[in-house]
Structure to design on (1257 residues):
């Protein structure tokens, strides 16, 4: 079987698996977020944190919940790292420096999981399991909660109420992420991922000398790393490490885990707004971009010219032989089109265009299918923009799902699309204006430029993957990327919730033959076009100076 | 009862057949004359004032850019490329102002005509004892003034005494005089119009300076123009795109320095790139599109009091249409004579004609006409019936007729005529009621005819009066349905009659026996369901509903209360025009969306022109992006800037005329417009920039 055919078959298997789980999972999530019932363990949690899960919140209250919870999480995770040296079960690792502790705390609370540390050389069991893994669950649940609040904004009318943040948060963890993680972890263990609390082993090497192997609760962290589109690896090598991702099957399963919730949320959306077809149109948009990017990635990686490429059947540098070009391309596209940022290969080593595809994937705003929750709300904001620009062409003022896109709504949507480009471009430019940051680059020319552009793109979009090659553990990068991650995560949430509140207050406009049909393929095409043009126009000059200059030179 | 529109006092200015064939592009554009561009040039220059420009964030950025490049060019006067960019950036700014100036210029001409009508008038104010001469501007609300033949009416008001013919050509442009009389729905007079005959007393209802004519002048001149909600929203989006591009261009400088392209990315080049990227096309044309939309209404003799109303017209999903005058021809016409058993049709026709000879109502005349056409009964002269006693119709008796040659003939409402026959000791044919019921159910109005002569009093038969639906209305309503608009017919008729006419005309729903309260309730019900409602009205009791409706079109013949309440006034008083108003509203929104899409799609090509021009030296591989094969970096950048400026001028006619609009479903409209303005917007600049580049290479020193 040729590697290309193998790639296509893997893609088809993935599509089939995602298709099978789409309905049950999407419907389940819709039920979870619409249910009136509280499970017993959930009641215990509400009692413990002193929250009333039944009270409806308007958008400012909902936002206060999001921000307060995240602020406490940030502080807790920061302190945990700062006192690691004094904690038992830390494998003898010392406390983390302030700038790196801030960066890591911001990174995990913002669902980014950018890592400027080497997991196996810095973080003990307590921080890994009690700090980072916990954030992997709750930061994902926060994203889903905000997405559901926006969906409620579309679904509800003549009320400003968006649901209860604490109920959404707890249910997301207890009823969606935890059960799926338990099953997923068992599958990963079955595939060969490790799950223990053993210490560091000295192991002899074939060529003489020794190396260290860490044990740890890897499978359980690996599963939520993918499922919650977090991406922070237990080991520095991330999903390229055989303890995290032992073989081709586990690789495919991990890609499935990355994509399953973001795609299924479109069904949850369709269910909750009362029109499954609206959900399908959003699903279609996400799928077209995802499959298109995957196809492009495979094409550019398989087509690599030169004797080394031809011997290996393509661009194999930086890729694991057990995954090959297909398994790596599938993974790298899935991880950058979502906010995951886990890697099973090194994006820096991809062809010029391949690196560009990973960059552009993030720059689209990670919406195809995007992070858990953040993908859906990002896509819905783009739908609002698309409806606003093109919707006028049917001769009515723009409306989406029966809600008018007026001055208030477009203000919030416009602010939303401003945040990440501003963070990415300004911090990248600042890194070149200042003298020292550029010293972190290990490459010169266009490739070096891509390293820094990638770092801020990844941070501000909450992806967390690194281009590799950049030494990001400096005060400059730890602080600026930390700020970019926090602002890139929470500012958009402010605008999304404000938008949701504004939508929920409206009286819906009934659909007529004169209404723009947003559940048709034509709208899907329009939405894909809007996304590509808006992101493309924003980043084209920067991309030209990085991956394009490199790719076109090949 | 004002839901019935009074018969037009004059024919509409530009009578348009109600039934134009479906599917033809209907809302055409206004006239556009290239000379207007030249004439408006001085105005465009005047608008360069930064205080004016700052209202459009996109064009303000261009203005700042022009100033910056001018300074740079002055500092380095030998730089021909710099001067060329500077010149074209200024032209871009001027072209944008030109679009607005041309749009406004068309209104100005109209305002001048109106001003002529607003000459200072002397009013004859009534005092307790007599009358005094005061200046028109000194009148207060509530003053009573007298106008006689030849006088110019000094202010807006209602006629409280008398009847007069008035020349309203100053505001409507129509020379045929109209009748204005006290009481009823034709009492409103407008200041600046002229009394042609008779004497009327007018109660002033508007303060000087706020009269209809003042408001009209403000409107057509655009002085009172405020941005509409959708325009504000679009401006916000354009501003945010401008910020994004500003960031992209500003951050490009450090990137370029790192890449080793410092020299190729001078401030002039970066400014040029910025101006090319920000959505200048729509930014330049946005206000012109809005003004032109109002202007298209003015050309159809409709005055919109706000742009908001025009925008709302595009969103309307329910049209309330008065039956009479809009859907039907206005008057019922006799369509057949149905005799009761034992009577011949000829006998009935004769009696019906006799009773209607003195009946000057349109119904009465139609009976005479039918009798003549169908039964060859010639019209009897008044002289033949000199001793006839005519019985007038009254609301109490609800019948009319004649007593002549010992013969009594009556026609009227079923109940009244039957009562009359019984009172006269006659017999009522057993099938009379069945006949009237049948006609009622068919949507007609039955008029019972009875006579008392030597054979005694008896019912002869029934005249079938029928509403005649205007030709082509059904097609028009089908079209509206395809556009997603529901039509509701409003009528004072009983439900049976209303239902029959509704079915014949093809409206979606009807409101029978409608009172103003019913109408109000219907509007509120529709609005509660999120629908926007449009209606026409003319009476004082329509005013609350007109105010409540999202688009309330008051007839110019209507009362001042109605005109005050509505947000549009139709000078032709043609209720059918509501449909056109909706189409103009839609066309305005489509034009705005189409040019926005076009503007954004244009950027792709500009990147392909400018990015390789800036960076091909640093990274030779980027020269592969120069897919247009532009001659040199300078010519590439200049071509993009020139295209960007010229496309504004090229699109001014489209912005003023509006894009072609034909009623169809949202889907087909989107597909068509996306194809033309989306795809077209992607492709057109590639061709345009290449052509300009080819021309530029002919100029020595640049190519």
């Amino acid at each position: 079987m040729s590697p290309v055919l193998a790639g296509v078959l893997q893609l088809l298997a993935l599509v089939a698996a995602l298709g099978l789980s789409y309905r049950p999972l999407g419907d389940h999530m819709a039920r979870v977020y619409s249910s009136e019932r509280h499970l017993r363990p959930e009641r215990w949690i509400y009692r413990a944190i002193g929250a009333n899960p039944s009270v409806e919140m308007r958008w400012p209250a909902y936002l206060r919940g999001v921000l307060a919870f995240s602020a406490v999480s940030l502080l807790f995770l920061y302190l945990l790292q700062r006192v690691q040296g004094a904690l038992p079960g830390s494998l003898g690792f010392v406390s983390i420096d302030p700038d790196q502790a801030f960066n890591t705390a911001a990174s995990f609370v913002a669902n980014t999981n950018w890592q400027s540390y080497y997991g196996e050389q810095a973080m003990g069991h307590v921080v890994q399991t009690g700090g980072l893994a916990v954030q992997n669950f709750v930061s994902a649940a926060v994203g889903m909660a905000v997405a559901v609040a926006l969906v409620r904004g579309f679904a509800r009318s003549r009320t400003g109420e968006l649901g209860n943040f604490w109920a959404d948060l707890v249910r997301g963890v207890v009823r969606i992420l935890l059960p799926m993680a338990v099953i997923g972890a068992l599958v990963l263990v079955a595939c060969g991922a490790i799950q223990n609390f053993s210490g560091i082993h000295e192991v002899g090497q074939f060529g003489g000398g020794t190396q260290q192997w860490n044990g740890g609760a890897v499978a359980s962290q690996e599963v939520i790393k993918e499922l919650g589109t977090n991406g922070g690896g237990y080991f520095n090598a991330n999903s390229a490490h055989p303890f995290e991702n032992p073989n081709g099957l586990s690789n495919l399963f991990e890609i499935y885990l990355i994509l399953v919730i973001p795609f299924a949320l479109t069904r949850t959306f369709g269910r909750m707004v009362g029109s499954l077809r609206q959900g399908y149109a959003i699903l279609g948009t996400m799928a077209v971009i995802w499959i298109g990017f995957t196809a492009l990635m495979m094409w550019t990686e398989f087509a690599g010219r030169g004797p080394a490429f031809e011997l290996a059947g393509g661009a194999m540098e930086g890729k694991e032989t057990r995954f090959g070009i297909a398994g790596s391309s599938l993974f790298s596209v899935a991880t950058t089109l979502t906010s995951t940022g886990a890697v099973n290969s090194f994006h820096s080593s991809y062809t010029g265009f391949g690196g560009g595809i990973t960059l552009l994937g993030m720059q689209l705003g990670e919406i195809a299918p995007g992070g858990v929750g953040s993908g859906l709300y990002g896509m819905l904001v783009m739908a609002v923009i698309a409806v606003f620009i093109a919707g006028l062409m049917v001769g009515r003022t723009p409306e989406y799902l029966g809600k008018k896109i007026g001055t208030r709504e477009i203000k919030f949507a416009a602010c939303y699309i401003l945040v990440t480009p501003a963070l990415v471009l300004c911090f990248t430019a600042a890194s070149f204006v200042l003298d020292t940051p550029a010293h972190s680059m290990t490459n010169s020319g266009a490739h070096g430029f891509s390293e820094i552009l990638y770092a801020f793109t990844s941070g501000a979009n909450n992806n967390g993957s690194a281009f590799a090659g950049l030494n990001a553990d400096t005060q400059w990068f730890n602080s600026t990327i930390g700020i970019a991650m926090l602002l890139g995560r929470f500012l958009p949430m402010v605008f999304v919730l404000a938008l949701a509140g504004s939508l929920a207050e409206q009286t819906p406009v009934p659909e007529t033959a004169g209404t723009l049909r947003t559940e048709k393929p034509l709208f899907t095409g329009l939405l894909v076009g809007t996304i590509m043009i808006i992101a493309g126009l924003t980043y084209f000059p920067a991309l030209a100076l990085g991956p394009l200059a490199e790719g076109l030179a090949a | 009862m004002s839901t019935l529109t009074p018969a037009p006092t004059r024919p509409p200015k530009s009578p348009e057949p109600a039934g134009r064939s479906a599917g033809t592009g209907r809302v055409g554009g206004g006239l556009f004359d290239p000379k207007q561009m030249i004439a408006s040039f001085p105005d465009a220059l005047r608008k360069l004032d930064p205080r004016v420009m700052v209202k459009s964030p996109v064009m303000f950025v261009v203005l700042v850019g022009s100033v910056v490049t001018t300074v740079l060019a002055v500092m380095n006067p030998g730089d021909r490329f710099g001067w060329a960019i500077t010149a074209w950036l200024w032209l871009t700014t001027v072209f944008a102002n030109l679009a607005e100036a041309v749009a406004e210029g068309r209104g100005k001409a109209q305002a001048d005509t109106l001003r002529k009508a607003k000459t200072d008038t002397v009013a004859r104010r009534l005092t307790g004892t007599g009358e005094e001469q005061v200046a028109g501007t000194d009148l207060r609300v509530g003053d009573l003034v007298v106008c006689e033949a030849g006088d110019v009416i000094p202010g807006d008001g209602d006629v409280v005494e008398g009847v007069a013919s008035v020349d309203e050509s100053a505001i409507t442009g129509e020379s045929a005089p109209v009748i204005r009389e006290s009481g009823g729905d034709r009492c409103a007079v407008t200041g600046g119009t002229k009394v042609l005959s008779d004497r009327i007393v007018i109660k002033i209802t508007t303060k000087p300076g706020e009269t209809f004519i003042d408001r009209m002048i403000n409107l057509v001149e655009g002085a009172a123009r405020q941005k509409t909600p959708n325009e504000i929203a679009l401006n916000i989006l354009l501003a945010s795109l401008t910020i994004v591009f500003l960031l992209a261009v500003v951050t490009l400088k450090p990137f370029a320095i790192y890449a080793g392209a410092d020299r190729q990315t001078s401030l002039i080049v970066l400014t040029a790139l910025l101006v090319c990227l920000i959505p200048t096309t729509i930014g330049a044309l946005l206000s012109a599109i809005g003004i032109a939309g109002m202007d298209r209404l003015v050309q159809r003799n409709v005055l919109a009091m706000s742009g908001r109303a025009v925008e709302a017209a595009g969103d309307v999903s329910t049209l309330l249409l008065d039956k009479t005058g809009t859907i039907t021809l206005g008057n019922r016409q006799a369509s057949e004579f149905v005799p009761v058993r034992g009577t011949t049709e000829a006998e009935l026709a004769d009696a019906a004609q006799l009773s209607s000879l003195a009946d000057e109502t349109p119904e009465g005349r139609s009976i005479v006409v039918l009798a003549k056409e169908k039964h060859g009964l010639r019209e009897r002269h008044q002289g033949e019936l000199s001793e006839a006693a005519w019985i007038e119709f009254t609301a109490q008796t609800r019948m009319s007729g004649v007593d002549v040659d010992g013969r009594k003939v009556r026609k009227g409402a079923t109940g009244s005529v039957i009562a009359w026959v019984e009172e006269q000791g006659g017999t009522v044919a057993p099938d009379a009621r069945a006949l009237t019921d049948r006609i009622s159910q068919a949507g007609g109005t039955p008029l019972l005819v009875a006579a008392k002569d030597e054979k005694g009093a008896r019912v002869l038969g029934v005249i079938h009066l029928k509403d005649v639906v205007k030709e082509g209305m059904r097609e028009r309503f089908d079209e509206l349905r395809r556009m997603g608009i529901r039509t509701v017919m409003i009528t004072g008729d009983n439900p049976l009659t209303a239902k029959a006419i509704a079915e014949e005309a093809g409206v979606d729903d009807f409101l029978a026996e409608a009172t103003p309260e019913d109408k109000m309730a219907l509007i509120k019900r529709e609005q509660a369901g999120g629908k926007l409602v449009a209606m026409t009205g003319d009476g004082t009791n329509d005013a609350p509903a007109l105010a409540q409706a999202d688009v309330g079109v008051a007839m110019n013949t209507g009362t001042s209360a109605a005109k005050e309440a509505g947000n549009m006034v139709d000078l032709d008083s043609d209720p059918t025009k509501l449909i056109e108003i909706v189409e103009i509203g839609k066309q305005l929104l489509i034009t705005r969306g189409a040019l926005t899409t076009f503007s954004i799609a244009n950027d792709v090509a500009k990147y392909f022109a400018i990015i390789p021009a800036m960076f091909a030296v640093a990274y030779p591989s980027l020269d592969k992006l120069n897919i247009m094969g532009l001659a040199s970096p300078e010519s590439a950048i200049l071509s993009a800037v020139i295209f960007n400026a010229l496309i504004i001028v090229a699109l001014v006619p489209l912005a003023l005329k509006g894009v072609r609009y034909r009623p169809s479903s949202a889907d087909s409209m989107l597909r068509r417009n996306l194809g033309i303005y989306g795809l077209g917007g992607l492709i057109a600049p590639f061709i345009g920039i290449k052509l300009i580049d080819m021309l530029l290479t002919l100029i020595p020193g640049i190519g």
